[in-house]
Recover the amino acids of this structure.
């Protein structure tokens, strides 16, 4: 009798696990379809490398929180970026407002919109299990994966920022410097912060130490690190700005 009860419980648990897995996959599929549809509001610009030219007017009509677009060639990262007055709204909400745990890519509430005005602009995205959103950021803690990313682009209404990875570090989620917009206080500097990040880096560009000395502005991409839940550390990919291409010039 006990054996039969255990079998029934085991089968029930399998059904529950299967149902949860299916629900997660359906949410991932919903998010992918939603963001693929948003790509229809972009066309390839004359910069090459697949860099999109973004119809911000059309996207703003869908969601006025849009501030930019992040694109990393050779990865799934090709998303609108939003910002609101908190860092929680878009953890469980897609760009179009649909409730979904994949969320949206969003800029830290403390940054000056549309981004790239402060010394550090910080973007957040989930570490999903289907390879989308910012999973590539956590993957880049591996040097071989880091080396695959040569360039990233941040697009706003007025300009496209061409960026190159400096490093990817894994830090505690209490490390507030990873979301600090400016380093202007006594004893602070962007250079000192970047040197501290380099000391914690899991992967880095071969010329990272030299480039840090001349870097005046960075974008940091942040996601949860590792596969074990709860995740208490963050993977932070720091990108230096190499070129700013003004639109309409």
């Amino acid at each position: 009798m006990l054996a039969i009860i255990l079998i029934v419980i085991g089968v029930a648990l399998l059904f529950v696990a299967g149902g949860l897995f299916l629900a997660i996959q359906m949410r991932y599929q919903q998010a992918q379809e939603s963001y693929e549809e948003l790509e229809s509001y972009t066309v390839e610009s004359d910069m090459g490398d697949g860099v999109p030219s973004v119809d911000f007017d059309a996207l703003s009509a869908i969601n006025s929180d849009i501030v930019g677009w992040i694109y990393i060639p050779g990865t799934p990262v090709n998303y609108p970026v939003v910002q609101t007055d908190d860092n929680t709204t878009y953890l469980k909400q897609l760009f179009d407002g649909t409730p979904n745990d994949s969320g949206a890519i969003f800029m830290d509430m403390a940054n000056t919109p549309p981004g790239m005005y402060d010394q550090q602009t910080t973007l957040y995205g989930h570490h999903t299990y289907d390879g989308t959103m910012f999973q590539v950021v956590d993957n880049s803690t591996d040097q071989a994966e880091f080396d695959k990313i040569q360039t990233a682009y941040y697009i706003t209404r007025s300009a496209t920022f061409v960026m190159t990875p400096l490093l990817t570090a894994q830090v505690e989620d209490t490390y507030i410097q990873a979301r600090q917009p400016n380093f202007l206080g006594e004893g602070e500097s962007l250079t000192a912060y970047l040197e501290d990040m380099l000391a914690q880096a899991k992967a880095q560009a071969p010329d990272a130490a030299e480039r840090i000395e001349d870097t005046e502005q960075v974008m940091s991409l942040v996601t949860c690190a590792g596969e074990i839940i709860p995740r208490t550390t963050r993977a932070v990919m720091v990108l230096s700005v190499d070129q700013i291409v003004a639109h309409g010039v």
